[in-house]
Specification:
Number of strands: 0
CATH superfamily: lambda repressor-like DNA-binding domains
Largest sheet: none
Distance between the termini: 15 Å
Structural class: mainly alpha
CATH class: Mainly Alpha
Radius of gyration: 14 Å
CATH architecture: Orthogonal Bundle
């Protein structure tokens, strides 16, 4: 299933409008609309925020992450526990820049290998 379709189904299952999801995630409603129409790729930061608001794992939105998590060739597994995801989204600005850069780099690398 496509990322846009996954996002739309998860949002609708929670009963959120695009505007409500955007407000709760701290993202513009236009951006949510673009994600759901495959007009824009979801960056790691927004993926984390959206999944926290929807109460789902990041791989529920982007299935390529699940593929990488189960790939035997992947030496470092990326697994974000719901509590950690919630913490990251709510405290992102408090996390040191070097740590944020590492989180983003690891996630981006996993997505590129898919």
């Amino acid at each position: 299933m496509e990322i846009a379709e996954n996002l739309r189904k998860l949002r609708q299952a929670k009963g959120f409008s695009q505007s409500e999801l955007a407000r709760r995630a701290g993202i513009s409603p236009v951006q949510i609309s673009q994600y759901e129409r495959s007009r824009s790729a979801i960056g790691v930061r927004n993926l984390l925020k959206i999944s926290a608001v929807l109460g789902c794992a990041i791989n529920d939105i982007d299935e390529r992450i699940e593929k990488n998590l189960t790939d035997e060739k992947l030496s470092r597994r990326i697994y974000v526990h719901d509590d950690m995801l919630f913490y990251l989204c709510n405290n992102w600005e408090k996390i040191p820049l070097r740590t944020r850069a590492g989180i983003i780099a690891e996630t981006d690398n996993a997505l590129k290998r898919s």
